[in-house]
C-alpha cells in the first residue's frame, strides 16, 4: 500500500484533500477555510433542505401565470415552505419583507412581491427561493415565461441558463473560482450580453451567505481554489443591454438595469465532490 492509500485508510478521504490543499497553499493560491468544507452529516442536512427548495420551485412552476400578482407567489412560497416544516430564508433577512424575490423584466434581482404587480403577457420572471430546514440553507432560482414572450427575451433567458450550466461545468475540484467566472462571462459576451458585477454567487449551507463570493466574470487561473466539500451557488445575472444597475431608492432592495432593458438570472447550488460536482438544487 502506498503512503497516500495508507493516509486515506487512517484518516479517511480527507487526508488526500488536506495534502493537496497544502500543496496549493504553499504556491500562494488562496484555499477555502476548513469551516466551509462540509462534513458528510452537514451534506445530508443541506441535501434535505435543497430537496424542499427544488420541490417548491416545481410547485411555483405549476401555478405561475398571466394575471396573478407577485404577492400571490409570495403567499404560495410561504405556505408551501411552512407546511413542509421549513422556513423561507429571505423573510426578515436583513429587513427583507417577504418570503421570496420575484424579479420581472428589467428587475435584475431582489424584487419585492407586491399586490400591485400583476404578471402580464410577454413578461420574463425570475423566482428566487431559499429554504432553511433543520438549520440548513438552500438557494435556487428559475426563469418563467408568461404567455407569448418575444424571441429576443426568450433568447436572453436561454443564454442565461447556458451561462449557469457552463459555470457549473467549470466548477471542478482543484480548478479556480476565476475559471467559473471567465467561462460565464465569455458565453454571455459572445452572445452580445453583459454580466452584472455588483452581485455574485456565494457559499451556502450553514448560513444563507457564506464565503466565498462566486463572481460571474473574471480570469481563468485566478481566485480561490475549488475543493471537494464546498457548497456554493452559481447564479449569473445577464443583461440584454449594458451591465450597469441601480437600487430602487424607495425600497432599498430592488435592483434594476440602468438602461431599462431586460435582465435574466438562473441559480443553482452545487456540491464539489472529489470527481466533479453535484447539482443540489434546481
Ligand atoms: N436568494 C438571493 C440569493 O441568491 C438572496 C436574496 S436576499 C433577500 O442570494 F433578502 F432578498 F432575500
Ligand atoms: Co443565492
Describe this structure as you would to a colleague.
This protein is of the alpha+beta class. The protein has a single domain (35-281), classed as Creatinase/methionine aminopeptidase superfamily (Creatine Amidinohydrolase), CATH 3.90.230.10. It has helices at 3-11, 14-26, 40-63, 70-83, 151-170, 177-190; strands at residues 87-88, 101-104, 107-109, 124-133, 136-145, 194-195, 201-203, 210-214, 231-234, 237-239, 245-247, 255-257, 263-265, 268-272, 277-279. The strands form five sheets. Strands 1, 2, 4 and 5 form a four-stranded antiparallel beta sheet that branches. A hairpin with a 7-residue loop joins strand 11 and strand 12 (255-257). The chain is globular. The termini are far apart. Residues 90, 93-94, 96, 101, 110, 128, 130, 139, 235, 267 line the site of 2-amino-4-trifluoromethylsulfanyl-butyric acid (MF3).
Amino acid at each position: 500500500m502506498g503512503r497516500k492509500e495508507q493516509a486515506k485508510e487512517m484518516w479517511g478521504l480527507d487526508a488526500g484533500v488536506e495534502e493537496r490543499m497544502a500543496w496549493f497553499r504553499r504556491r500562494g493560491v488562496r484555499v477555502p477555510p476548513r469551516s466551509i468544507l462540509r462534513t458528510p452529516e452537514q451534506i445530508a442536512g443541506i441535501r434535505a433542505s435543497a430537496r424542499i427548495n427544488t420541490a417548491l420551485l416545481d410547485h411555483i412552476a405549476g401555478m405561475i401565470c398571466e394575471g396573478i400578482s407577485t404577492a400571490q407567489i409570495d403567499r404560495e412560497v410561504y405556505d408551501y415552505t411552512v407546511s413542509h416544516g421549513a422556513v423561507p430564508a429571505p423573510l426578515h433577512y436583513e429587513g427583507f419583507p417577504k418570503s421570496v424575490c420575484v424579479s420581472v423584466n428589467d428587475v435584475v434581482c431582489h424584487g419585492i412581491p407586491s399586490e400591485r404587480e400583476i404578471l402580464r403577457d410577454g413578461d420574463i420572471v425570475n423566482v428566487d427561493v431559499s429554504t432553511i430546514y433543520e438549520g440548513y440553507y438552500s438557494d435556487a432560482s428559475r426563469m418563467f415565461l408568461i404567455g407569448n414572450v418575444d424571441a429576443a427575451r426568450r433568447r436572453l433567458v436561454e443564454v442565461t441558463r447556458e451561462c449557469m450550466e457552463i459555470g457549473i461545468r467549470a466548477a471542478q475540484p482543484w480548478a479556480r473560482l476565476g475559471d467559473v467566472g471567465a467561462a460565464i462571462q465569455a458565453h454571455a459576451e459572445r452572445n452580445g450580453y453583459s454580466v452584472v458585477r455588483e452581485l455574485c454567487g456565494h457559499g451556502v449551507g450553514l448560513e444563507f451567505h457564506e464565503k466565498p463570493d462566486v463572481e460571474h466574470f473574471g480570469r481563468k487561473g485566478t481566485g480561490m481554489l475549488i475543493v471537494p466539500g464546498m457548497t456554493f451557488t452559481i447564479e449569473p445575472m445577464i443583461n440584454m443591454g449594458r451591465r450597469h444597475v441601480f437600487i430602487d431608492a424607495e425600497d432599498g432592495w430592488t435592483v434594476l438595469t440602468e438602461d431599462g432593458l431586460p435582465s435574466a438570472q438562473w441559480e443553482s447550488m452545487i456540491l464539489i465532490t472529489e470527481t466533479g460536482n453535484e447539482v443540489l438544487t434546481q
